[in-house]
Amino acid sequence: MADVSIQPKHFLSDKVERFTESVIREMTRQAMLYGAVNLAQGFPDFPAPAEIKRAAQEAVAADVNQYAITWGAKNLRNAIARQMKEWQGIPVDPETQITVCCGSTEAMISTLLAVCNKGDEVIIFEPFYENYGPDAVLSGARPIFVKLRPPANTDDEWSFDERELRAAFHNHTKAIILNTPNNPTGKVFTRAELELIRDLCVEFNVLAITDEIYEHIIYDGTQHISIASLAGMAERTVTINGLSKTYSVTGWRVGWAVAPPNVTNAIRKVHDFLTVGAPAPLQEAGAAALGLLPSYYQSLATSYCARRDRLVPALAEARFRCFRPRGAYYVMTDICAFGFTDDLAFTKYLVKEIGVAAVPGSSFYHDPRNGAQQVRFAFCKRVDTLDEAGKRLQKLRGLRKK
Ligand SMILES: Cc1ncc(COP(=O)(O)O)c(C=O)c1O
To answer: In angstroms, how far is CA 308 from the centroid of its own chain?
Structure first.
């Protein structure tokens, strides 16, 4: 037999060398290891609504236990189309425009695999939800980053420079990824900002892929606007959403992509061969969830606002500079007061010595130096969990800048 020595990387693709495992999910493992309060990963530690849990149990009992239609159960697609019309005034044909996936995570990667050729450029605002970087690599696209800049006054909004955004668009641009309400900044894009993005998408013939998973989690009278609702955008937008955040069921793995029929056809092909379909009984429960009364969404936003207003003062007292989120359930903070050289060393100290897990800011930037003085906390937790974290964080008050 030939003497074939196996190098460590012999069986691996070049692609996987270009990204690491999720830092956010790693922080959850660290929280468990050190018995820390987990304000890292964005999943609720409180129960999902009783009605939708019942709907899931009933679907299993009624033997909705085999493959659903690959692009989604009819009841759920109908409910998604109805909700998009009601909330955003966007007409959607449930037969030709919706693909139900295993979470919005799969909806995003299926969309990028369906639309990108090698070398296509995809514009991403940064800081960004960490999946978008590996998603771009896996689909062969080249990510082009445009900065969202923190406000000088932490009560103001994160913003981007119009000229920098325009300079990112050119011939090879295939798509722009938007996320509003935004993780990690809490920014909710305004109509004027979305119109500017719309104008560039039309001028350069670019697709908008918009992750709106925090659509219903908004504060301070802020309004969520779907870019697909703007004139000229329905035919060039993929809107991604899911059950995870709105209904506190991140483990169900049900999300969807809404797109024009030709793009939907391509997404459905990729989705079919990636996963065949999302969990059938949970899609039926999803249809029930989307039928909840408007008061459900009001109290969801109100209760998250109360959680934000519980955690932010505790962080501020412990000397974090907190950028006030207008949506989603995270607060991005500046850690300059503590004198650590970088965010990784600080989050390690936080999880081991203080007993609170958070996400290092660098995991939201392509150049880690940009997030070296930032840390993100999630507040999708019970009030007593937030209070316990707040109490532990006060130990930082004695920490002197080196
Ligand atoms: C912006 C954003 N998109 C998508 C997801 C994941 O959503 P899903 O559970 O539907 O895959 C998250 C989870 O934290 C997120 O923050």
So the answer is: 18
Ligand 1 pocket check for 243: Cβ under 6 Å = no
Provide long-range contacts, Cβ within 8 A and 24+ apart, for 65-70.
Answer: 65/280, 65/281, 66/280, 67/276, 67/277, 67/280, 68/100, 68/277, 68/278, 68/280, 68/283, 69/277, 70/268, 70/271, 70/272, 70/276, 70/277
pLDDT value of position 139: 95
Question: Ligand 1 in contact with 105 (CB < 6 A)?
Answer: yes
Q: What angle do CA 288, 245, 273 make, to 5 degrees?
A: 80
Which of 121, 134, 145 is CA-nearest to residue 17? Answer: 134
- Give 402's pLDDT tier (boundaries 50, 70, 90): low
Distance 244 CA to ligand 1 centre (A): 7
Q: Answer whether 255 contacts ligand 1 (Cβ < 6 A).
A: yes
Distance 105 CA to ligand 1 centre (A): 6
Q: How far does CA 90 lie from the centroid of its chain?
A: 22
What is residue 9's predicted lDDT score, i.e. its pLDDT?
77
Q: Take atom 16 of ligand 1 and give the residue whose Cα is closest.
A: 183
Which has the closest alpha carbon to 393: 343, 334, 351? 351
**Is the distance from the beta carbon of residue 183 to the nearest atom of ligand 1 less than 6 Å?**
yes
* pLDDT at residue 224 in the model: 97
* Ligand 1 atom closest to the CA of 24, numbered from 1: 14
| CA–CA gap between residue 335 and residue 339 (Å, rounded) | 8
pTM flag (> 0.85)? yes
